[in-house]
């Protein structure tokens, strides 16, 4: 898994844990809602400034958010059983 995908997954998990919609999170982080979607889907490579805004929104240090993404990046995706 690419780091931007893992980072997006970490952001999505944290957002869900807070019970926030993408709109609510975007408002708190002061970023556009469609950009939140792109981040969560791993479609964009974000700046350190945006990463810091995201971490601050969750009230966690940036290094904690990055560690979570790195942990998720190392997890191998489950493979589907072959049918037939």
What does this structure look like?
This protein has 84 residues and is mostly helical. It has 5 helices and no strands. The chain has helices at 3-18, 22-29, 33-40, 48-57, 62-74. Helix 1 packs across helix 5 (62-74) and helix 2 (22-29) crosses helix 3. It starts with a helix and ends in a 10-residue tail after the last helix. The model has no long low-confidence stretch (mean pLDDT 92).
Order of helices and strands: HHHHH
Mean pLDDT: 92
Please bin the fraction of helical residues.
55-70%
The total strand number stands at 0
Number of separate helices: 5
Principal-axes geometry comes out as globular
Strand content: under 5%
Low-confidence stretches: none
Rg from Cα: 14 Å
Question: How far from one another are the termini?
Answer: 28 Å
| Largest sheet, strands/sense/barrel | none
* Helical/strand content category: mainly alpha
């Amino acid at each position: 898994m690419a780091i931007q995908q893992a980072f997006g997954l970490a952001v999505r998990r944290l957002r869900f844990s807070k019970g926030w919609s993408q709109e609510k999170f975007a408002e708190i982080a002061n970023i556009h809602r469609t950009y939140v979607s792109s981040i969560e889907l791993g479609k964009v490579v974000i700046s350190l400034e945006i990463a810091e805004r995201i971490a601050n929104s969750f009230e966690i240090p940036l290094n904690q958010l990055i560690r979570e993404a790195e942990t998720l990046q190392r997890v191998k995706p489950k493979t589907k059983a072959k049918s037939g």
